[in-house]
Automatic annotation (TrEMBL):
Function: Bifunctional aspartate kinase and homoserine dehydrogenase that catalyzes the first and the third steps toward the synthesis of lysine, methionine and threonine from aspartate.
Similarity annotation: In the N-terminal section; belongs to the aspartokinase family.
Keywords of the record: Amino-acid biosynthesis, ATP-binding, Kinase, Metal-binding, Methionine biosynthesis, Multifunctional enzyme, NAD, NADP, Nucleotide-binding, Oxidoreductase, Signal, Sodium, Threonine biosynthesis, Transferase
Name of protein: Homoserine dehydrogenase
Species assigned in the record: Cyclotella atomus
Phylogenetic lineage: Eukaryota, Sar, Stramenopiles, Ochrophyta, Bacillariophyta
One of the GO biological process terms: methionine biosynthetic process
Keyword Amino-acid biosynthesis in annotation: yes
Associated pathway: Amino-acid biosynthesis; L-threonine biosynthesis; L-threonine from L-aspartate: step 3/5; Amino-acid biosynthesis; L-threonine biosynthesis; L-threonine from L-aspartate: step 1/5; Amino-acid biosynthesis; L-methionine biosynthesis via de novo pathway; L-homoserine from L-aspartate: step 3/3; Amino-acid biosynthesis; L-methionine biosynthesis via de novo pathway; L-homoserine from L-aspartate: step 1/3
Span of domain Aspartate/glutamate/uridylate kinase: 78-389
Source superkingdom: Eukaryota
InterPro entries assigned: AceGlu_kinase-like_sf, ACT-like_dom_sf, ACT_Aspartokinase, Asp/Glu/Uridylate_kinase, Asp/hSer_DH_NAD-bd, Asp_kinase, Bifunc_Aspkin/hSer_DH, HDH_cat
Signal peptide coordinates: 1-15
Ranges for domain Homoserine dehydrogenase catalytic: 741-946
Record CDD domains: ACT_AKi-HSDH-ThrA-like_1 (cd04921)
């Protein structure tokens, strides 16, 4: 069993921190440790334990250090190139030219390059071996394809006088491979040693190919078959190991003294064989370059072997230690080690520097930029390891060097500081994940005894060779949960059921279960976590805001990492949320705008576009509009990409998709951004019906749509319940008073303990404008037309003039006050005759409104009469609302108000709300200001969005 990164905390005062070398070689280490406790009458007490620490692995001693050729005293540099950097002839040239540049730009620098097989070659050779079991002719064909691909590159890079001998060597290697695999059909199996021998030729051919190119350009170069010098002992499983596994090289250790001696002998012979003069003469600009094979080695028994999959990084650091190199550069296709996987967290960026310990933690938790054990040979000599981009060599990349302070040193003064108090300091270096894991749980074994349960549990995992990634135990009920690779789940379950077969039959163990869902581990890593409070809280809070459910929590005893297990479908959202929480990137808010081509939607999109850069700079908030819909069409950003919103009408043209609310919802659910917002500008009941479902998916809603807040009370309650149950926000400030803080003021009064008795004022900017504009010269319908021309009215002007618009706002306020009320309960005075109110009109919006105005001309005379009577008495007409909380009544009507009324000075398109409360009993609190028109309504929605953004963000100005 190979216990990967975990730290088992035994009680509150003692911690066991096995080294990764120990873990990879001795799978039953935890069982043995627990057994030792039992023998000494110690009962394991494991509560929310963490991960086995990977950071205390001691560097293996090197007894001999005579590893440089005579005549070279300068410090060597080691470069490592992976298969992706060697996929074709042009890339081999790129690598060769880069080596020449690196070996000369700081003066002549003796250089060793460790190379992997060309891209895809190892898989091709694996296929050769696999094919030989059933079809020898297919194996021969696969081998020929592999060889010819390498030879084509070789011939393109160098002339015949250089390639001829190399080609003969490669063809001899191919013949040897064929003779080896021909025997497989007889034994009907593939010995691990055969797979290792065959696949190792990919590196040998690759090194020879790069050597040929450098020799062709006249470089002082030699190539080294690592099998001739690198001697290793393997205590783990034979074979290549699993591709991409962080445990692949576990148990493979160089025999340092023998390797150093063999390398010294190689220096003495290679000069004669290659005709290379290693001595650097004064003033000489060219330094020697050695091309060495990665991945391959020789066992202590003299058998060709490998450092397992992804082991070329390890080869590079082994040779760096042997050479006492001044640096090691791992050339990748990324700009160093990233704060997170940029494929899953687009905002991730390259880290300038890491400590060895931090890099190892990140590597063990799935960061694929470097191999977990590649750091080990460099630690003792403190050799810096650079991660750089072969396609962007000018970029400095990431440097890995130095050790993290020990917990003893960190804890010396005992002072704990909240990480947010350290301005500009981020406690973590990166966030990473391990995908495709499962939870294996044993429940209710209290009658057996916790220590015995733990020993037998871990022993069964060891016997079945299961990788245990995390462990948690509940002492109160003797329950244990381990996190294991998903592909080992069934084997682990069977092993545990067999171990506790008798207890299960007697019901001494309640249940043994394997999670059905695919899980992922998400971990934050960084030296700054130790003795800094609030780090775990920030991590957990970010996941809660992203609606990510945590199944298992663990913290390592090193205090340099915290890990959680979440459902795989939530992993990317968890990564992005955590990344934002520690201000590693701006808080990005994904926005879908419904009704995007209407007056409100267009005004909002215009404002968002204009303020985009300002938001990021001042507030650390990025807004990504990745969905826009009209009443008939929709446009979704490809793979969640942001849409350019300058012209919504063009986006929703004929080539846009037909509106499909289900498809739109699925796209919003699939968005991995933890901060998702729908802005509903439609005032449509069908859209409001979707709110509870969206909220249940963790999506926040901003709603100028008054139908949501004033519609059927059952739907209103369902929205409220969904909001509370899923910790999401429903912002609808803009549904009442546009950008005026009416609802905010009301909530503040109530939440601070004030009792609201009466609300009164005017909630219709249209009505305010009409009765400010009316005169003997301006008729009622002329004033309505002016309001229409200034975009103050609803699409159907009857909504304003019947009082329906004002009534819906009254209901929203009343429900905020706790009143169980609907629009039907509001006493409304309509200014539209019943026949006009119920009449069906056809045509465009403008044509319909003109027809309505024509029919309303019958109201000009009576409205002028009311206006004159009011003016003659020193009064003014205002469309007034009153909410009497104590009487539980609501009304809106056209009233004549005196000059002592707050509405007397209402102007143009203003709204006004007067709050009469216990505190404000002698004089009401008044909120007053312009509130009609799409720009003001859009500003209100924008403010709602900013409130959400600030709640998501940890940005400090």
């Amino acid at each position: 069993m190979r216990f990967l990164p975990a730290t088992l905390l035994i009680s509150s005062v003692c911690s066991f921190t096995p080294s990764p070398a120990l873990l990879s070689r001795h799978g039953n280490v935890v069982g043995s440790f627990i057994n030792a406790g039992i023998n000494n009458n110690i009962r394991p007490h494991v509560k929310q334990n963490g991960l086995f620490s990977t950071l205390e692995r001691p560097a293996a001693p090197m007894e001999s250090s005579v590893t440089k050729p005579n005549g070279i005293e300068e410090s060597w540099e080691v470069h490592k190139f992976g298969g992706a950097s060697l996929a074709d002839a042009s890339l081999y040239k790129t690598v060769g030219d880069l080596l020449l540049s690196e070996s000369t730009h700081r003066g002549p620098v003796p250089t060793m390059a460790i190379v992997s097989a060309r891209g895809g070659m190892t898989d091709l050779l694996v296929k050769v071996v696999s094919s030989a079991l059933s079809d020898m002719s297919q194996a021969e064909s696969d081998l020929e394809n592999a060889l010819n691909g390498q030879l084509e590159i070789l011939h393109e890079l160098a002339p015949k006088e250089i390639t001829e001998s190399i080609e003969l060597s490669m063809r001899k290697d191919a013949a040897d491979i064929l003779s080896v695999v021909q025997s497989l059909r007889m034994i009907r199996s593939i010995p691990p040693s055969v797979m290792e021998v065959v696949t190792g030729f990919g590196e040998i051919w690759s090194a020879q190919t790069l050597y040929a190119y450098l020799k062709a350009v006249g470089t002082k170069v030699a190539w080294l078959d690592a099998r001739d010098v690198l001697i290793v002992k393997s205590e783990g499983n034979a074979g290549l190991g699993e591709k991409g596994s962080s445990s692949s090289t576990g148990g493979v250790t160089p025999v340092w003294d023998v390797t150093a001696s063999k390398l010294e002998d190689w220096w003495g012979t290679i000069g004669k064989e290659e005709g290379v003069n290693w001595e650097l003469k004064e003033g000489e600009k060219e330094a020697p370059i050695v091309i060495a094979t990665g991945f391959v080695a020789t066992s202590t028994e003299g058998v060709p072997t490998t450092l397992k999959r992804s082991g070329s990084d390890y080869s590079a650091t082994i040779f760096a230690k042997l050479l006492k190199s001044s640096r090691v550069t791992m050339w990748k296709n990324t700009d160093g080690v990233y704060t997170a996987d940029p494929r899953r967290v687009p905002e991730a960026f390259s880290i300038d520097s890491l400590k060895y310990d931090e890099a190892m933690e990140l590597a063990y938790f799935g960061a694929q930029v470097l191999h977990p054990l590649a750091m080990v040979p460099c630690i003792d000599s403190n050799i810096p390891v650079y991660i750089r981009n072969i396609f962007n060599p000018a970029f400095a990349g990431t440097v890995i060097q130095g050790r993290c302070a020990s917990l003893k040193d960190v804890n010396k003064d005992g002072k704990v500081v909240n990480w947010r108090s350290k301005k500009g300091v981020i406690p973590i270096k990166g966030i990473t994940s391990v995908d495709k894991v499962s939870l294996l749980t044993l429940e209710g074994a209290s009658v057996i005894g916790g220590a015995e349960v733990a020993e037998r549990f871990m022993g069964s995992m060891a016997d079945a060779n299961i990788d245990v990634l995390m462990v948690t135990q509940a002492s109160s009920e003797s329950s244990i949960t381990v996190v294991i690779p998903e592909n080992q789940g069934k084997a682990a379950l069977a092993a545990l059921q067999s171990t506790f077969e008798l207890e299960l039959s007697r019901s001494n163990v309640n249940a043994i279960s394997l999670s059905e869902e695919t899980m992922s581990i998400v971990a934050i890593v960084g030296e700054g976590m130790a003795m800094n409070s609030g780090v775990s809280a920030s991590f957990m809070s970010s996941l809660a805001k992203a609606n990510v459910n945590i199944r298992v929590i663990a913290q390592g005893s090193s205090e340099r990492q915290v890990a959680v297990v979440v459902e795989a479908k939530d992993a990317s959202r968890a990564l992005r949320s955590a990344h934002m929480a520690f201000t590693l990137s701006s808080t990005m808010v994904s926005v879908a705008v419904l009704g995007g081509t209407g007056k409100l939607g267009t005004a909002l999109l215009r404002q968002l576009e204009a303020q985009k850069s300002n938001l990021e700079k001042k507030l650390g908030i990025g807004v990504c509009v990745n969905a826009i819909a009209s009443s008939t069409k929709m446009r979704l950003g490809t793979n969640g990409q942001c849409l350019t919103t300058n012209d919504p009408d063009a986006l929703l043209g004929d080539d846009a998709d037909d509106l499909d609310m289900d498809a739109l919802t699925l796209a919003l659910q699939a968005d991995v951004n933890p901060h998702r917002v729908i802005i509903d500008c439609t005032n449509c009941d069908r859209v409001a019906d979707k709110y509870p479902f969206w909220m249940a998916s963790g999506i926040n809603v901003i709603s100028p749509n008054r139908n949501a807040g004033s519609g059927p009370i059952d739907r209103y309650n369902a929205i409220r319940d969904a909001q509370r149950a899923n910790s999401v926000e429903w912002q609808y400030e803009s549904s009442v008073g546009s950008a005026l803080p009416i609802l905010t003021t009301l909530r503040d009064l109530m939440q601070t303990g004030d009792d609201v008795h009466l609300l009164r004022g005017c909630l219709s900017g249209t009505m305010a404008y009409i009765f400010s504009a009316m005169s003997e010269e301006v008729s009622f319908t002329d004033a309505v037309r002016e309001a229409m021309e200034q975009d103050f009215t609803e699409n159907d002007i009857r909504e304003d003039l019947t009082g329906a618009d004002a009534a819906s706002k009254i209901v929203i306020l009343a429900r905020e006050l706790g009143m169980d009320i609907s629009v039907e309960d509001v006493e409304i005075e309509s200014l539209v005759p019943e026949d006009v109110r119920n009449k069906e009109y056809t045509g465009t919006k403008d044509e319909i409104n003109e027809a309505i105005l024509k029919d309303l001309e019958v109201m000009n005379a009576p409205m002028l009469k009311r206006w004159k009577e009011a003016v003659e008495d020193g009064l003014l007409l205002r469309y007034k609302f009153v909410i009497d909380v104590e009487k539980s009544t609501c009304r809106c009507s056209l009233d004549a108000v005196t000059n002592t009324d707050t509405l007397y000075r209402l102007r143009n398109n203003e709204n006004l709300v007067a709050f009469e409360t216990t505190r404000y009993s002698t004089s009401p609190l008044i909120v007053k200001g312009a509130a009609a028109g799409p720009e003001l309504a859009a500003a209100g929605m924008f403010a709602d969005l900013l409130r959400l953004g600030r709640a998501f963000s940890t940005f400090e100005t």
